[in-house]
Amino acid sequence: AQTVTQSQPEMSVQEAETVTLSCTYDTSENNYYLFWYKQPPSRQMILVIRQEAYKQQNATENRFSVNFQKAAKSFSLKISDSQLGDTAMYFCAFRASGAGSYQLTFGKGTKLSVIP
Amino acid sequence: EADIYQTPRYLVIGTGKKITLECSQTMGHDKMYWYQQDPGMELHLIHYSYGVNSTEKGDLSSESTVSRIRTEHFPLTLESARPSHTSQYLCASRPGAGGYTFGSGTRLTVV
Description:
The structure holds two protein chains of two kinds. By secondary structure, chain A is mostly beta strands. Chain A has strands at 3-5, 10-14, 19-21, 24-26, 32-39, 46-52, 60-61, 64-69, 74-79, 88-96, 105-106, 110-115. Chain B contains no helices and eleven strands. In chain B, strand 5 and strand 6 form a beta hairpin.
């Protein structure tokens, strides 16, 4: 079974600053996907960024980038130039890529507040 | 704009009532999922489907049931609601190897 751990229940950052959210996971799988999802207050959960485990290059989406350390089973999210609209719960998630891999396993989430 | 729709958005209902939470997607995805999320907590899978007439229970035990008669529709039913069912229910879908798309959720309160 897979587990995903987010050790920071809450974080805050000043607008325009950079913040890093931590995520570690445990798995015996070799091929898998990792995700960061954003869930704004009372709004839909949306995909922020995705990483395939076989790719060594860290994924980047505009102001969002990850630091994927496969050996350490670490998958942190860096948000640059933080904006007020980044205020949300952020969930790290794991999904194995083999046959029968049917679900995302989520961490408990990190509540991020961007302060004006 | 979401391509996966959940209704109702909010529901307050009395104990013992039967309720159905609706989930529809217009993307033609075969795989659909129901997650339960308590406030400020992680999501737990309660049901999933790989296609029409395919339904399975997830890791979190749930008294709800689901059906998948059409690709685009994946409703969740509680035959007799109880206060312990109070939670947020999130529906999601995905194509074969892609990422998940989530609905806006149904926040259920059973009084």
